[in-house]
């Protein structure tokens, strides 16, 4: 999968609005149907524990957990109002 990092600060700077771009895996949704190409992603300490809480609260998996090789675990979910969001666990051993 192609993935382009977007960093707003230096490696040693906490915070910032960091993320990345991935190629769309399907046709763009029709106008007026909600999220079309931007999705907030939150850093979490434990991907699996956070995913369990999301699912227990009524969220659904939009894109399963995947490795961003040598960097992190990433996955996307849909909340109870239909919004897509991601969670990201830093892990240099991810593969």
Structure report:
- 11% of the residues lie in helices and 36% in strands.
- The protein is built from one helix and six strands.
- It has one helix at 47-56, and strands at residues 3-6, 19-22, 41-43, 60-68, 72-78, 84-90.
- The strands form two sheets. The protein has a four-stranded mixed β-sheet with strand order 3-6-5-4, with helices on one face. It has a two-stranded antiparallel sheet with strand order 1-2.
- Strand 5 (72-78) and strand 6 form a beta hairpin.
- The mean pLDDT is 84.
SSE inventory with pairings:
Elements: E1 3-6, E2 19-22, E3 41-43, H1 47-56, E4 60-68, E5 72-78, E6 84-90
Parallel strand pairs: 3-6
Antiparallel strand pairs: 1-2, 4-5, 5-6
Brief summary of the model shown:
The chain has about 100 residues and is mainly beta. The chain is built from 1 helix and 6 strands; from the N terminus they run E-E-E-H-E-E-E. The relative contact order is 0.19.
* Overall number of strands: 6
Order of neighbouring strands in the sheet with most strands: 3-6-5-4
Mean pLDDT: 84
Our measurement of the CA-to-CA distance between the termini, rounded to an integer number of angstroms, reads 13 Å
The biggest sheet amounts to: 4 strands, mixed
SS content category = mainly beta
Number of helices: 1
Tell me what portion of residues adopts beta-strand conformation: 35-45%
Oligomerization category of the chains in this entry: single chain
What's the helical proportion of residues?
Answer: 10-25%
Shape call: globular
Flag low-confidence runs. Answer: none
Rg, alpha carbons: 14 Å
Reading the helices and strands in chain order gives EEEHEEE
